[in-house]
Amino acid sequence: MSRLRELNSKKALTPEEVSEQYGLSKGTLANLRSKKQGAKFFRVGGGRKILYRIEDLESWLYQNPVMTIDSHNDR
């Protein structure tokens, strides 16, 4: 199975996988977590492993679209 297909079939992603799938750096994700900002995340395995549910990531990513002239015509 291809790496992209494997990532798309998961329900939760590690910061490394989020970086690969969405283009956000691991450092940015860590900074957002430290500020209690960004997508909801979960600490598992004694708090050492971080997981993001895909539905939470996408909800956060798509909550503030930039409206362009062309996007107003799509409504």
Question: Please, what is the average pLDDT?
Answer: 88
**What overall form do the CA principal axes indicate?**
globular
Helix/strand-derived category reads alpha+beta
Whole-Å distance between the termini?
Answer: 37 Å
Strand line-up in the sheet with most strands = 1-3-2
Order of helices and strands: HEHHEEHH
Largest sheet: 3 strands, antiparallel
Please work out how many helical segments DSSP would assign. 5
Give start-end ranges of low-pLDDT stretches: none
Task: Give your account of this protein's structure.
The protein has 75 residues and is of the alpha+beta class. The protein contains five helices and three strands, in the order αβααββαα. The chain has a three-stranded antiparallel sheet. The longest helix has 9 residues, at 26-34. It is globular, with a radius of gyration of 15 Å. It starts with a helix and ends with a helix. The model has no long low-confidence stretch (mean pLDDT 88).
Short description:
With 75 residues, this protein is of the alpha+beta class. The chain has 5 helices and 3 strands, in the order αβααββαα. It has a 3-stranded antiparallel β-sheet.
Write the layout of secondary structure elements.
Elements: H1 3-8, E1 12-13, H2 15-22, H3 26-34, E2 42-44, E3 49-53, H4 54-61, H5 69-72
State the main characteristics.
75 residues; alpha+beta; three-stranded antiparallel beta sheet; 3 strands; 47% helix
